[in-house]
């Protein structure tokens, strides 16, 4: 039986189709989920894609956090459902308090779009087991509100508990504290990051295929626990 991974579409989502394609290339069955539908249609994991949910009004991700589908996702994530938030999806996870901290305006006040080198810091999550700790990967990055911030106590706790999953290399593109590009929750089933692994799954269209490991990781995790 094929592993089913849901991809939520909010008003203003941009990269939902790309995420579904990445899932398919990894060998999973992508399932389209609508923001107004509380039913997750028996998916085994969920991706919250990049874009500009609800036009990024109020704060990025702040309105999407209250959508009907998120009510179910929040409950199931706390019960162990693997959830990946990419860019705007990371913002939604922070607004939902599934991950700590917040994403703020880039420190240079400009939108950034570049191929970004990252270092993998944690391979014990549902979405990163196919990588090696310390591995360096390159995936696209595109954001205007991508600066990760949190109070010093939260940052120290993330570092001490190994919950920093990815860190920026060469250049900090948005002013994120401690060069943090992605984090996870305590259980490791919820991961959020600003760069876009779904845009690095094919040699024809991406700078690398380094992003495919996110999706193969969760498929293997789900098969192993089924």
Architecture overview:
The chain is of the alpha/beta class. The protein has one domain (4-225): Class I glutamine amidotransferase (GATase) domain (Rossmann fold), CATH 3.40.50.880. The chain contains 5 helices and 11 strands, in the order E-H-E-E-H-E-H-E-E-E-E-H-E-E-E-H. The chain has helices spanning 16-26, 68-78, 88-95, 152-160, 212-225; strands at 4-9, 29-34, 45-48, 83-86, 102-104, 112-120, 136-143, 147-149, 164-168, 180-184, 190-193. The strands form 2 sheets. Strands 2-1-3-4-11-10-9-6-7 form a 9-stranded mixed beta sheet, sandwiched between helices. Strand 3 (45-48), helix 2 (68-78) and strand 4 form a beta-alpha-beta unit. The radius of gyration is 16 Å and the shape is globular. It starts with a strand and ends with a helix. The model has no long low-confidence stretch (mean pLDDT 96). It catalyses: N(2)-formyl-N(1)-(5-phospho-beta-D-ribosyl)glycinamide + L-glutamine + ATP + H2O = 2-formamido-N(1)-(5-O-phospho-beta-D-ribosyl)acetamidine + L-glutamate + ADP + phosphate + H(+); L-glutamine + H2O = L-glutamate + NH4(+). Its EC number is 6.3.5.3, 3.5.1.2. The active site is at 87 (nucleophile), 196, 198. It holds the Pfam family GATase_5. Keywords: ATP-binding, Cytoplasm, Glutamine amidotransferase, Hydrolase, Ligase, Nucleotide-binding, Purine biosynthesis.
CATH topology: Rossmann fold
For the terminal residues, how far apart are their CA atoms?
Answer: 11 Å
Indicate the structural class.
alpha/beta
Q: Which CATH class is shown?
A: Alpha Beta
CATH architecture: 3-Layer(aba) Sandwich
Task: Count every helix, treating DSSP H or I runs of 4 or more residues as helices.
Answer: 5
Total tally of structural domains? 1
Mean pLDDT: 96
Helix amount, in percent?
10-25%
Q: What's the count of strands?
A: 11
As residue ranges, the low-confidence spans are none
Main sheet: strand order: 2-1-3-4-11-10-9-6-7
N-to-C SSE string, H for helix and E for strand = EHEEHEHEEEEHEEEH
Please describe the biggest sheet, giving its number of strands, its sense, and whether it closes into a barrel.
9 strands, mixed
Label the overall shape.
globular
Catalytic activity: N(2)-formyl-N(1)-(5-phospho-beta-D-ribosyl)glycinamide + L-glutamine + ATP + H2O = 2-formamido-N(1)-(5-O-phospho-beta-D-ribosyl)acetamidine + L-glutamate + ADP + phosphate + H(+); L-glutamine + H2O = L-glutamate + NH4(+)
Active site: 87, 196, 198
InterPro entries: Class_I_gatase-like, PRibForGlyAmidine_synth_PurQ
Protein name: Phosphoribosylformylglycinamidine synthase subunit PurQ
């Amino acid at each position: 039986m094929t592993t089913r991974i849901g991809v939520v579409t909010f008003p203003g989502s941009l990269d939902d189709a790309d995420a579904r394609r990445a899932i398919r290339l990894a060998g999973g069955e992508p399932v389209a989920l609508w923001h107004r539908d509380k039913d997750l249609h028996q998916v085994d994991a969920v991706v919250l894609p990049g874009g500009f949910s609800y036009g990024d009004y109020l704060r990025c991700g702040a309105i999407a956090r209250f959508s009907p589908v998120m009510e179910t996702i929040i409950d199931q994530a706390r019960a162990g459902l693997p959830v990946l938030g990419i860019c705007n999806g990371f913002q939604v996870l922070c607004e939902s308090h599934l991950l700590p901290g917040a994403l703020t305006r880039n420190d240079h006040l400009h939108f950034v779009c570049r191929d970004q080198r990252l270092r993998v810091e944690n391979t014990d999550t549902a979405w990163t087991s196919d990588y090696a700790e310390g591995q360096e990967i390159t995936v696209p990055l595109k954001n205007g509100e991508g600066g990760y911030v949190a109070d010093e106590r939260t940052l120290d706790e993330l570092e001490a508990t190994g919950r920093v999953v990815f860190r920026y290399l060469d250049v900090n593109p948005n002013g994120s504290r401690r060069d943090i590009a992605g984090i996870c929750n305590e259980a490791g089933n919820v991961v959020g990051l600003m760069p876009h692994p779904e845009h690095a799954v094919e040699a024809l269209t991406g700078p690398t295929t380094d992003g495919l490991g996110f999706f193969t990781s969760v498929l293997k995790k789900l098969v192993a626990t089924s």
